[in-house]
Sequence to fold (364 residues):
Amino acid sequence: MARGELFLALLFVVVASALAANAAGARKTVDVYELKKGNFSVKVTNWGATIMSVILPDSRGNLADIVLGLDTVGEYINDTSFFGPVAGRVAQRIARGRFVLDGKVYHLNINDGRNTLQGGGRGFHKVIWTVKEYVGAGDSPHITLYYRSFDGEQGFPGNLDVHVTYRVEGPYTLGVHMNATALDRETPVNLLQHTHWNLGGHGAGDVLGHALQLRASRHTPLDDDMLPSSGRVAPVAGTPFDFRAPTLIGARDGQVMGGRVAGYDANYVVDGEPWCMMRPVAAVRDGASGRALELWGNQPCVQLYTANWLNRTRGEAGAVYGRHAGFCLETQGYPDALKHPEFPSQTLRRGQVYRHDMLFKLSF
Ligand SMILES: *[C@@H]1O[C@H](CO)[C@@H](O)[C@H](O)[C@H]1NC(C)=O
Ligand SMILES: *[C@@H]1O[C@H](CO)[C@@H](O)[C@H](O)[C@H]1NC(C)=O
Ligand SMILES: *[C@@H]1O[C@H](CO)[C@@H](O)[C@H](O)[C@H]1NC(C)=O
Ligand SMILES: *[C@@H]1O[C@H](CO)[C@@H](O)[C@H](O)[C@H]1NC(C)=O
Fold:
Protein backbone atom coordinates (compact mmCIF):
# COMPACT_ATOMS: atom_id res chain seq x y z
CA MET A 1 0.00 0.00 0.00
CA ALA A 2 1.24 3.51 -0.77
CA ARG A 3 1.50 5.79 2.23
CA GLY A 4 -1.47 7.87 1.08
CA GLU A 5 -3.64 4.78 0.75
CA LEU A 6 -2.43 3.57 4.12
CA PHE A 7 -3.42 6.87 5.67
CA LEU A 8 -6.86 6.72 4.06
CA ALA A 9 -7.27 3.14 5.25
CA LEU A 10 -6.32 4.17 8.78
CA LEU A 11 -8.61 7.17 8.64
CA PHE A 12 -11.42 4.86 7.57
CA VAL A 13 -10.67 2.61 10.53
CA VAL A 14 -10.80 5.61 12.88
CA VAL A 15 -14.10 6.86 11.49
CA ALA A 16 -15.61 3.36 11.33
CA SER A 17 -14.63 2.61 14.93
CA ALA A 18 -15.97 5.97 16.08
CA LEU A 19 -19.28 5.29 14.34
CA ALA A 20 -19.50 1.76 15.74
CA ALA A 21 -18.82 3.10 19.20
CA ASN A 22 -21.48 5.78 18.80
CA ALA A 23 -23.96 3.14 17.79
CA ALA A 24 -23.17 1.32 21.03
CA GLY A 25 -23.65 4.58 22.94
CA ALA A 26 -20.03 4.62 24.20
CA ARG A 27 -17.71 7.62 24.31
CA LYS A 28 -15.12 6.81 21.68
CA THR A 29 -13.60 9.85 20.07
CA VAL A 30 -9.88 10.54 20.02
CA ASP A 31 -8.68 13.29 22.35
CA VAL A 32 -5.87 14.49 24.61
CA TYR A 33 -6.19 14.20 28.41
CA GLU A 34 -3.91 15.99 30.85
CA LEU A 35 -3.08 14.72 34.35
CA LYS A 36 -1.76 17.67 36.31
CA LYS A 37 -0.37 17.97 39.81
CA GLY A 38 1.59 21.15 40.63
CA ASN A 39 4.30 21.53 38.03
CA PHE A 40 4.13 17.87 36.98
CA SER A 41 1.99 17.19 33.93
CA VAL A 42 1.33 14.05 31.89
CA LYS A 43 -0.61 14.11 28.62
CA VAL A 44 -2.25 10.98 27.32
CA THR A 45 -4.35 10.18 24.27
CA ASN A 46 -6.77 7.30 23.94
CA TRP A 47 -5.29 6.62 20.47
CA GLY A 48 -3.08 3.62 21.32
CA ALA A 49 -3.27 4.43 25.07
CA THR A 50 -0.31 6.70 24.33
CA ILE A 51 1.73 8.91 26.68
CA MET A 52 2.29 12.08 24.63
CA SER A 53 4.23 14.22 27.12
CA VAL A 54 5.62 14.29 30.67
CA ILE A 55 6.58 17.74 31.90
CA LEU A 56 8.94 18.04 34.87
CA PRO A 57 11.27 20.74 36.26
CA ASP A 58 15.04 20.23 36.25
CA SER A 59 17.44 21.10 39.09
CA ARG A 60 17.50 24.76 37.97
CA GLY A 61 13.72 25.03 37.82
CA ASN A 62 13.37 24.80 34.04
CA LEU A 63 10.37 22.82 32.84
CA ALA A 64 10.77 20.41 29.92
CA ASP A 65 8.90 17.60 28.26
CA ILE A 66 11.06 14.55 28.97
CA VAL A 67 9.41 12.08 26.57
CA LEU A 68 9.67 11.97 22.79
CA GLY A 69 6.41 12.65 21.03
CA LEU A 70 4.43 14.40 18.32
CA ASP A 71 2.39 17.61 18.38
CA THR A 72 -1.05 16.32 17.50
CA VAL A 73 -2.99 13.08 17.94
CA GLY A 74 -3.38 12.88 14.15
CA GLU A 75 0.38 12.48 13.73
CA TYR A 76 0.36 9.39 15.97
CA ILE A 77 -1.85 7.63 13.43
CA ASN A 78 1.11 7.65 10.98
CA ASP A 79 3.80 7.17 13.63
CA THR A 80 6.10 4.19 13.06
CA SER A 81 8.56 5.03 15.88
CA PHE A 82 6.35 3.77 18.73
CA PHE A 83 6.35 7.07 20.62
CA GLY A 84 4.62 6.22 23.91
CA PRO A 85 1.86 3.68 23.22
CA VAL A 86 0.88 0.39 24.83
CA ALA A 87 1.80 -2.68 22.76
CA GLY A 88 -0.28 -5.87 22.74
CA ARG A 89 -1.93 -8.37 22.61
CA VAL A 90 1.55 -9.96 22.69
CA ALA A 91 4.41 -7.46 22.60
CA GLN A 92 7.90 -7.92 21.07
CA ARG A 93 8.45 -10.44 18.31
CA ILE A 94 6.71 -13.71 17.59
CA ALA A 95 8.81 -15.83 15.22
CA ARG A 96 7.19 -16.30 11.80
CA GLY A 97 3.98 -14.78 13.17
CA ARG A 98 2.65 -18.15 14.22
CA PHE A 99 2.15 -20.20 17.34
CA VAL A 100 0.41 -23.36 18.46
CA LEU A 101 -1.99 -23.38 21.38
CA ASP A 102 -3.96 -26.44 22.46
CA GLY A 103 -3.02 -28.20 19.19
CA LYS A 104 -4.32 -25.40 16.97
CA VAL A 105 -2.05 -23.25 14.76
CA TYR A 106 -2.63 -19.48 14.85
CA HIS A 107 -1.37 -17.16 12.11
CA LEU A 108 -0.81 -13.54 13.06
CA ASN A 109 -0.40 -10.33 11.10
CA ILE A 110 3.25 -10.26 9.92
CA ASN A 111 4.71 -6.74 10.18
CA ASP A 112 8.46 -7.10 10.85
CA GLY A 113 10.23 -9.04 8.13
CA ARG A 114 8.96 -12.62 8.58
CA ASN A 115 7.79 -12.00 12.12
CA THR A 116 5.06 -10.30 14.13
CA LEU A 117 6.11 -7.27 16.17
CA GLN A 118 4.17 -5.54 18.98
CA GLY A 119 0.95 -7.46 18.40
CA GLY A 120 0.82 -6.82 14.62
CA GLY A 121 0.47 -3.77 12.39
CA ARG A 122 -2.84 -2.88 14.02
CA GLY A 123 -1.96 -3.94 17.54
CA PHE A 124 -3.21 -2.14 20.66
CA HIS A 125 -1.01 0.85 19.69
CA LYS A 126 -3.16 1.56 16.62
CA VAL A 127 -6.69 1.35 18.06
CA ILE A 128 -9.02 3.74 19.83
CA TRP A 129 -9.40 3.01 23.53
CA THR A 130 -12.51 4.01 25.46
CA VAL A 131 -12.07 6.52 28.28
CA LYS A 132 -13.65 4.83 31.31
CA GLU A 133 -12.66 7.32 33.96
CA TYR A 134 -10.80 10.63 33.86
CA VAL A 135 -9.82 12.87 36.76
CA GLY A 136 -7.42 15.54 35.49
CA ALA A 137 -6.44 17.26 38.75
CA GLY A 138 -6.55 16.93 42.54
CA ASP A 139 -4.72 14.48 44.77
CA SER A 140 -4.45 11.57 42.35
CA PRO A 141 -5.07 12.61 38.75
CA HIS A 142 -5.69 9.54 36.58
CA ILE A 143 -7.20 8.15 33.44
CA THR A 144 -8.45 4.62 32.85
CA LEU A 145 -8.60 3.42 29.26
CA TYR A 146 -10.44 0.31 28.16
CA TYR A 147 -10.22 -1.84 25.05
CA ARG A 148 -12.17 -4.95 24.06
CA SER A 149 -9.91 -6.96 21.76
CA PHE A 150 -12.07 -9.23 19.63
CA ASP A 151 -11.65 -12.93 18.83
CA GLY A 152 -9.33 -13.21 15.81
CA GLU A 153 -7.96 -9.66 16.05
CA GLN A 154 -4.53 -9.66 14.31
CA GLY A 155 -4.88 -13.47 14.53
CA PHE A 156 -5.13 -13.91 18.33
CA PRO A 157 -7.75 -16.24 19.85
CA GLY A 158 -10.66 -15.15 22.03
CA ASN A 159 -12.17 -11.93 23.28
CA LEU A 160 -10.00 -10.04 25.75
CA ASP A 161 -10.86 -7.12 28.06
CA VAL A 162 -7.92 -4.75 28.61
CA HIS A 163 -7.58 -1.81 31.02
CA VAL A 164 -4.70 0.65 31.27
CA THR A 165 -4.65 3.26 34.05
CA TYR A 166 -2.15 6.12 34.12
CA ARG A 167 -2.07 7.74 37.56
CA VAL A 168 -0.01 10.50 39.15
CA GLU A 169 0.91 8.98 42.51
CA GLY A 170 2.99 11.07 44.87
CA PRO A 171 4.43 14.36 43.71
CA TYR A 172 6.45 13.17 40.70
CA THR A 173 5.52 9.52 40.25
CA LEU A 174 3.65 8.13 37.26
CA GLY A 175 1.98 4.77 37.79
CA VAL A 176 1.01 2.52 34.88
CA HIS A 177 -1.46 -0.22 35.82
CA MET A 178 -2.56 -2.72 33.18
CA ASN A 179 -4.82 -5.73 33.39
CA ALA A 180 -6.42 -8.10 30.88
CA THR A 181 -9.07 -10.76 31.24
CA ALA A 182 -9.53 -13.68 28.83
CA LEU A 183 -13.29 -13.68 28.36
CA ASP A 184 -13.97 -16.92 26.52
CA ARG A 185 -10.84 -18.70 25.27
CA GLU A 186 -7.25 -19.43 26.15
CA THR A 187 -4.92 -16.72 24.82
CA PRO A 188 -1.38 -15.41 25.28
CA VAL A 189 -1.06 -11.87 26.72
CA ASN A 190 2.07 -9.76 27.15
CA LEU A 191 1.59 -5.97 27.23
CA LEU A 192 4.22 -3.27 27.45
CA GLN A 193 4.46 0.51 27.66
CA HIS A 194 6.77 2.03 25.04
CA THR A 195 7.60 5.59 26.17
CA HIS A 196 10.91 7.06 24.93
CA TRP A 197 12.51 9.07 27.75
CA ASN A 198 15.18 11.75 27.56
CA LEU A 199 15.73 13.24 31.01
CA GLY A 200 17.51 16.23 29.47
CA GLY A 201 14.35 17.14 27.56
CA HIS A 202 12.83 15.52 24.47
CA GLY A 203 14.88 17.63 22.04
CA ALA A 204 18.11 17.74 24.05
CA GLY A 205 20.13 15.41 21.83
CA ASP A 206 21.09 11.83 22.63
CA VAL A 207 20.92 9.92 25.92
CA LEU A 208 24.41 8.38 25.70
CA GLY A 209 25.50 10.52 28.68
CA HIS A 210 22.70 9.26 30.96
CA ALA A 211 23.88 6.85 33.68
CA LEU A 212 21.81 3.66 33.78
CA GLN A 213 21.61 0.98 36.43
CA LEU A 214 19.64 -2.21 35.72
CA ARG A 215 18.74 -4.69 38.45
CA ALA A 216 19.43 -7.56 36.10
CA SER A 217 22.30 -10.03 36.16
CA ARG A 218 21.00 -12.06 33.22
CA HIS A 219 19.63 -11.44 29.74
CA THR A 220 18.18 -13.55 26.93
CA PRO A 221 20.63 -13.27 24.01
CA LEU A 222 18.73 -12.34 20.83
CA ASP A 223 19.58 -13.42 17.28
CA ASP A 224 19.78 -11.18 14.19
CA ASP A 225 15.97 -11.24 13.94
CA MET A 226 15.79 -10.04 17.59
CA LEU A 227 14.42 -13.42 18.71
CA PRO A 228 15.62 -15.43 21.74
CA SER A 229 15.89 -18.46 19.44
CA SER A 230 18.49 -20.31 21.57
CA GLY A 231 16.24 -20.11 24.64
CA ARG A 232 19.37 -19.29 26.64
CA VAL A 233 19.42 -17.07 29.72
CA ALA A 234 23.01 -15.80 29.99
CA PRO A 235 24.87 -13.79 32.64
CA VAL A 236 25.63 -10.16 31.75
CA ALA A 237 28.91 -10.23 33.73
CA GLY A 238 31.87 -9.43 31.50
CA THR A 239 29.69 -8.36 28.55
CA PRO A 240 28.67 -4.91 27.24
CA PHE A 241 25.15 -5.72 28.50
CA ASP A 242 26.25 -5.33 32.13
CA PHE A 243 24.49 -2.35 33.77
CA ARG A 244 24.45 -3.75 37.31
CA ALA A 245 26.53 -0.76 38.44
CA PRO A 246 25.53 2.71 37.13
CA THR A 247 27.13 3.02 33.67
CA LEU A 248 26.72 5.60 30.92
CA ILE A 249 24.35 4.31 28.22
CA GLY A 250 27.00 5.30 25.65
CA ALA A 251 29.97 3.73 27.47
CA ARG A 252 30.01 0.72 25.14
CA ASP A 253 28.60 2.54 22.09
CA GLY A 254 29.11 0.50 18.94
CA GLN A 255 29.83 -2.75 20.81
CA VAL A 256 26.23 -3.92 20.85
CA MET A 257 23.92 -4.42 17.87
CA GLY A 258 20.16 -4.10 18.30
CA GLY A 259 19.29 -6.12 15.21
CA ARG A 260 20.97 -4.52 12.21
CA VAL A 261 21.81 -1.17 13.89
CA ALA A 262 24.13 -0.24 16.73
CA GLY A 263 22.60 0.23 20.15
CA TYR A 264 20.68 -1.71 22.77
CA ASP A 265 17.48 -3.59 22.00
CA ALA A 266 17.94 -6.23 24.65
CA ASN A 267 15.77 -8.24 27.00
CA TYR A 268 16.99 -8.51 30.59
CA VAL A 269 15.70 -10.85 33.28
CA VAL A 270 15.02 -8.71 36.35
CA ASP A 271 16.64 -9.93 39.60
CA GLY A 272 14.51 -10.87 42.58
CA GLU A 273 11.79 -13.37 43.37
CA PRO A 274 8.91 -13.69 43.16
CA TRP A 275 8.75 -11.60 40.01
CA CYS A 276 5.07 -10.79 40.41
CA MET A 277 5.88 -8.47 43.37
CA MET A 278 6.76 -4.82 42.75
CA ARG A 279 10.53 -4.38 42.89
CA PRO A 280 13.18 -1.96 41.61
CA VAL A 281 14.04 -2.56 37.96
CA ALA A 282 16.15 0.38 36.81
CA ALA A 283 17.53 3.77 37.76
CA VAL A 284 18.61 6.46 35.30
CA ARG A 285 20.29 9.80 36.00
CA ASP A 286 21.10 12.69 33.70
CA GLY A 287 23.89 14.71 35.32
CA ALA A 288 23.37 17.75 33.09
CA SER A 289 19.73 18.41 34.09
CA GLY A 290 19.85 16.70 37.49
CA ARG A 291 16.76 14.70 36.56
CA ALA A 292 16.49 11.06 37.55
CA LEU A 293 14.05 8.22 36.99
CA GLU A 294 13.58 5.09 39.02
CA LEU A 295 11.48 2.29 37.54
CA TRP A 296 9.67 -0.29 39.63
CA GLY A 297 7.71 -3.16 38.12
CA ASN A 298 6.26 -6.62 38.61
CA GLN A 299 7.18 -8.39 35.38
CA PRO A 300 9.94 -10.98 34.92
CA CYS A 301 11.82 -9.04 32.22
CA VAL A 302 12.63 -5.56 30.96
CA GLN A 303 13.56 -4.50 27.43
CA LEU A 304 16.20 -1.80 27.08
CA TYR A 305 15.86 0.01 23.75
CA THR A 306 18.01 3.01 22.87
CA ALA A 307 15.99 4.38 19.93
CA ASN A 308 18.42 2.92 17.42
CA TRP A 309 16.16 3.47 14.44
CA LEU A 310 15.47 7.18 14.88
CA ASN A 311 17.11 9.03 12.01
CA ARG A 312 16.26 12.72 11.62
CA THR A 313 12.75 11.79 12.72
CA ARG A 314 10.37 14.74 13.03
CA GLY A 315 9.15 15.19 16.59
CA GLU A 316 7.05 17.67 18.53
CA ALA A 317 7.69 21.42 18.72
CA GLY A 318 9.99 21.36 15.70
CA ALA A 319 12.45 18.94 17.31
CA VAL A 320 14.33 16.47 15.12
CA TYR A 321 15.15 13.18 16.82
CA GLY A 322 18.36 11.40 15.86
CA ARG A 323 19.70 8.00 16.83
CA HIS A 324 19.64 7.47 20.63
CA ALA A 325 17.47 10.56 21.21
CA GLY A 326 15.65 8.55 23.88
CA PHE A 327 15.65 5.30 25.83
CA CYS A 328 12.80 2.90 26.55
CA LEU A 329 12.55 0.65 29.61
CA GLU A 330 9.72 -1.76 28.90
CA THR A 331 8.86 -4.24 31.65
CA GLN A 332 7.45 -7.37 30.06
CA GLY A 333 7.25 -11.15 29.98
CA TYR A 334 9.88 -13.23 28.18
CA PRO A 335 9.87 -12.54 24.42
CA ASP A 336 8.41 -15.21 22.13
CA ALA A 337 7.54 -17.28 25.22
CA LEU A 338 5.01 -19.32 23.23
CA LYS A 339 7.93 -21.05 21.47
CA HIS A 340 9.93 -21.64 24.64
CA PRO A 341 8.46 -23.92 27.32
CA GLU A 342 11.56 -23.08 29.43
CA PHE A 343 10.22 -19.50 29.81
CA PRO A 344 7.29 -18.71 32.17
CA SER A 345 3.97 -19.11 30.36
CA GLN A 346 2.00 -16.04 29.23
CA THR A 347 -1.15 -17.95 28.44
CA LEU A 348 -4.36 -16.99 30.21
CA ARG A 349 -7.06 -19.56 30.61
CA ARG A 350 -10.67 -18.46 30.20
CA GLY A 351 -11.55 -16.08 33.06
CA GLN A 352 -7.93 -15.63 34.13
CA VAL A 353 -6.56 -12.12 34.73
CA TYR A 354 -3.17 -10.72 33.65
CA ARG A 355 -1.75 -7.87 35.77
CA HIS A 356 1.16 -5.59 34.97
CA ASP A 357 2.18 -2.57 37.09
CA MET A 358 4.94 -0.01 36.62
CA LEU A 359 6.00 3.02 38.67
CA PHE A 360 8.16 5.73 37.13
CA LYS A 361 9.50 7.67 40.13
CA LEU A 362 10.93 10.94 38.81
CA SER A 363 13.07 13.49 40.64
CA PHE A 364 15.23 16.52 39.87
C1 LIG B 1 7.60 22.91 41.28
O1 LIG B 1 6.79 22.72 42.41
C2 LIG B 1 7.53 22.56 43.63
C3 LIG B 1 6.55 22.20 44.73
O2 LIG B 1 5.48 23.10 44.76
C4 LIG B 1 8.31 23.84 43.90
O3 LIG B 1 9.11 23.64 45.04
C5 LIG B 1 9.20 24.17 42.70
O4 LIG B 1 9.79 25.42 42.88
C6 LIG B 1 8.40 24.19 41.41
N1 LIG B 1 9.31 24.35 40.29
C7 LIG B 1 8.97 25.02 39.18
C8 LIG B 1 10.00 25.11 38.12
O5 LIG B 1 7.88 25.53 39.03
C1 LIG C 1 -0.13 10.80 7.35
O1 LIG C 1 0.59 10.40 6.20
C2 LIG C 1 -0.03 10.75 4.99
C3 LIG C 1 0.76 10.14 3.84
O2 LIG C 1 2.12 10.44 3.95
C4 LIG C 1 -0.11 12.29 4.88
O3 LIG C 1 -0.77 12.63 3.69
C5 LIG C 1 -0.89 12.80 6.06
O4 LIG C 1 -0.89 14.21 6.04
C6 LIG C 1 -0.28 12.32 7.37
N1 LIG C 1 -1.13 12.73 8.47
C7 LIG C 1 -0.70 13.48 9.45
C8 LIG C 1 -1.71 13.86 10.48
O5 LIG C 1 0.45 13.86 9.55
C1 LIG D 1 -8.77 -3.82 35.72
O1 LIG D 1 -8.54 -2.45 35.99
C2 LIG D 1 -9.72 -1.65 35.99
C3 LIG D 1 -9.30 -0.21 36.20
O2 LIG D 1 -8.59 -0.07 37.38
C4 LIG D 1 -10.67 -2.13 37.07
O3 LIG D 1 -11.86 -1.38 37.02
C5 LIG D 1 -10.99 -3.59 36.83
O4 LIG D 1 -11.79 -4.08 37.88
C6 LIG D 1 -9.70 -4.41 36.74
N1 LIG D 1 -10.04 -5.77 36.35
C7 LIG D 1 -9.71 -6.81 37.11
C8 LIG D 1 -10.17 -8.14 36.61
O5 LIG D 1 -9.08 -6.71 38.14
C1 LIG E 1 19.13 7.99 7.68
O1 LIG E 1 18.29 8.56 6.66
C2 LIG E 1 19.03 8.97 5.54
C3 LIG E 1 18.07 9.74 4.63
O2 LIG E 1 16.86 9.05 4.47
C4 LIG E 1 19.65 7.75 4.88
O3 LIG E 1 20.39 8.15 3.74
C5 LIG E 1 20.57 7.07 5.88
O4 LIG E 1 21.09 5.89 5.32
C6 LIG E 1 19.85 6.75 7.15
N1 LIG E 1 20.79 6.28 8.13
C7 LIG E 1 20.63 5.16 8.79
C8 LIG E 1 21.69 4.81 9.76
O5 LIG E 1 19.65 4.44 8.65
